[in-house]
Write a structure and sequence with these properties.
There is one protein chain. The chain has two domains: 140 residues, Rossmann fold, CATH 3.40.50.1370; 154 residues, Aspartate/ornithine carbamoyltransferase (Rossmann fold, 3-Layer(aba) Sandwich), CATH 3.40.50.1370. It contains eleven helices and nine strands. The strands form two sheets. The protein has a five-stranded parallel sheet. A four-stranded parallel sheet has the order 2-1-3-4, with helices on both faces. Helix 1 crosses helix 11 and helix 2 crosses helix 11. This is Aspartate carbamoyltransferase.
Length: 317
């Protein structure tokens, strides 16, 4: 694997292979000594132009558990805040001997630009770009679904036939875009539920069903309900009347949660707005995988870094 930029271009075998490697990585994390010597001598740079807690720490933990050297780069307080371009920053990292660059950027397409520009020879891993994609989040979500659905027999299993409902701020979410393509590749059926104002203008090319009625969709007893955070920091207009109205119509409140089958998995990529898109009862229930997703994120990112730095580095984007 040369780069990991998108799930849209990730084939079925590649996706299953990555999830299987993540399964192996998860097994090593149950041992007393969690660290592996696999990437000793490699340098991984976390190049974050946007604030992040979960993703940055997860990538840092993943790299360190593979014995890589980690350099954390934040745009705030760096030369970027003084006007340095992405190209100059990238070439500085190249001069420092970076083997892999994990990039999070507010501009959609920035990781692809970095990967295809020829500015650096390092592998590039997209940790979220604008409202475009967040591939490792989708992979850890799929890993979590597979593990919950199949347990210890998850090896070599996909998500064929599963019904996944994704609810909330579809318009601004890079997580949902990566999930739509990956889940479709793995055989799941996806339904997006949101107010019309929080859906992209054109989703005709997406392999999904669209609904505006959460209650109607939940009556179909889906296998997974994933709630998305309302990204108020990206909103410059009023996309719904108020938070109370949003929660009443599109939130997984206590009443809706109580009507779900006990087998339905409840997910959230975090951070959560409790009481808005999800109630505390649902978030803290045994059906919730919120904490598992965080744990599984380290294993999935270990797998991605391993395949990026020690696997067959083909020239594919």
């Amino acid at each position: 694997m040369r780069h990991l930029l998108s799930t849209k271009t990730l084939g079925y075998d590649e996706a299953i292979g990555l999830l299987d490697v993540a399964e192996d990585m998860a097994a090593t994390q149950q041992r007393e000594v969690k660290k592996l010597p696999t990437l000793r001598g490699k340098a991984v740079v976390n190049l974050f132009f946007e604030d992040s807690t979960r993703t940055r720490i997860s990538f840092e933990a993943a790299a360190k558990r593979l014995s890589a050297d980690v350099i954390n780069f934040s745009a705030k307080g760096s030369s970027v805040s003084k006007g340095e371009s992405l190209k100059d920053t990238a070439q500085t990292l190249e001069a420092m001997g970076a083997d892999a660059v994990v990039i999070r950027h507010s501009a959609s397409g920035a990781p692809r630009t970095l990967a295809s520009s020829g500015w650096i020879s390092a592998g590039v891993l997209n940790a979220g770009d604008g409202t475009h994609e967040h591939p490792t989040q989708a992979l850890l979500d799929a890993f979590t679904m597979r593990k919950r659905a199949h347990g210890s027999a998850s090896r070599a299993r996909d998500l064929n036939g599963m019904h996944v409902v994704i609810v909330g701020d579809i318009l601004h979410s890079r997580v949902v875009r990566s999930n739509v393509w990956l889940l479709s590749t793995l055989g799941a059926h996806v339904t997006l539920v949101a107010p019309p104002t929080l859906l992209p203008v054109d989703v005709s090319g997406w392999p999904v069903r669209i609904s505006y009625d959460l209650d109607e969709v939940l009556r179909g007893e889906p296998d997974v309900v994933m709630l998305l955070r309302i990204q108020s920091e990206r909103m410059h207009d009023a996309f719904f009347p108020n938070s109370r109205e949003y929660s009443r119509r599109w939130g997984l409140d206590d009443a809706r949660f109580a009507r779900l089958p006990q087998s339905t998995i409840v997910m959230h990529p975090g951070p959560m707005n409790r009481g808005l898109e999800i109630s505390s009862l649902a978030a803290d229930s045994v059906q919730s995988t919120v904490r598992e997703q965080v744990t599984n994120g380290v294993s999935v990112r270990m797998a991605a870094l391993y395949l990026l730095l020690s696997g067959d580095r083909e020239d594919s984007l």
